[in-house]
Amino acid sequence: MTVKVEVVEGGIPHNTIMAAGLVASVIFIYLTYANVLTGTQLFSFFGGLAAVAAITWGSHTIKHLCSYGIGTGVPSAGMMAFGSGVIAMLFATKFGVASPIVAVVLAAIIGAVLGFLSNNVLNMRIPVMIQSLTEMAIIGALVLMGFAAMISGSFEFNPLTAGSVTILGLSLPSYQASFIGSSLIAVAFMLGGIAVQHPFNACLGPNWTQDRMLTLAQECGFLSMITAAVMSMVFLSFSAALVSVIVALVGWYYTYTKYIELSKRDAAAWLDAKPIPELEGH
Amino acid sequence: MDIPSTIAGIILLLVIVGATYFLVGAGMMFYALIGVIVGGLLIAFGVHFVPVGGAPAAMGQAPGIATGVAMLAAGAGLAGLFGGAWAAEQGLVVAVITGAVGGGLMMAITCMFVTFIYVFGMGIPCASGKVAKDPITGDTQTEYKSQGTEGHGLPFVSYVGGVIGGLLGGGGGTLIYIMLLDVYKEALPGMMKALPAQVLPIAVSLAGIFAVGMFLVNAVLTAYNITGTIEGPHDPKFKRFPRALVASAVASALCGMVAILIVAM
Fold this sequence. Notes:
heterodimer; A: mainly alpha; 10 helices; globular; disordered N terminus; B: mainly alpha
């Protein structure tokens, strides 16, 4: 099954997207650290932008891998990314400020081992298998860390596991009211997993175009970011959560209109069929 | 089977197990790693039984359930995991059996409604393309098979395979969850300087998300082994399972080591 069924023609080369996605994602995650430096929570929305950058890179990696016809369906690649990424991300949160770097390194190791197992032990024999699964694990870890930073305002283990509940004006520490304790990480897992696999699944085919798929990836990322921003209202101050919601909504609206434009450009013909036709004379 | 790579994989497995033994000693954490590896093996072996049809099955051109391994694993396996998690307080054996029953039940229901839709909705009989006679019932298959297809619907042996796969997958997923939950319940109170009851949500959440992650990794590795589709235990692809067991043992050991070190370091 090593017949390459599609080729990347023109457009931005994969390595450029990979480098840009990795650098942008790590930098955006570090920008949420401005929360700690300035003592506010207003910079949490950078976590969502980190997730969007990683998801955009991830959709192109999936395109790179799945163009070899791996036979298991595109969603399996997204699930693999987050299954391996969540393990690296949770372990890395223990390392304080160095967490994003540790997450990238550890995810790369786990991904490379999984790639070796798939390619050599399971005999897949796909040239880009090891590189792609390494990238996928890093993407999974970065997306989860981005959403964690966005929802709880931090990417370190202690703030992610400890929260507080206010009962009758009294603030009590509670481990249940935290990003990990309330299992919001499972929601972030699926929000990212579906956003990363959907763009290629939706755009694949003979008239695949790179800019359309990447725009859809950004749109999916911002859509997940809206949900994450709403969830962040539990943990962050209202103004910080509001900033996240506005950034996510603006980003989603911009990428959505752009995606519709690109879809019309690539379509052979299109008809603006109204969802409910207005019937006259009844 | 690629012998040098398989040997390299087994050496990697021994290195990971040895490194964990060196880091945490022969205590509960080390036995938890062994439990995680056994759970991973059960999942990988179980997925081979599940009749995964993929897109051709949805068009009635191949037998099996009309979706991919990732979706079936998430549906049946995680249903078992959640079932087992409810019984976590009843002890290891009861919880693992409950998880297995949950996964098997979910697959049985899925297979039944898939057959309903194939037979009454799409109007196709159930026929295997890989064997002339059903190994369990002895029914002949070729008369019912349409020309140009690899069979269609869900033959009886695939149904039984699906239930066995659900049992193994659900049990394996629950085993991973229980093993990690015990480690976290033991280690987290000391690490976070809090009462055991206070950190229980953290322990449950961490063990749950790690179990889900490992479940998906093992399921997708197995999907790569069967290149996406399989009819059930009678399919010739089923014989490929030894190499999936090697890959799954290494992957589970690596992920399990990281999951255990989060509280051991």
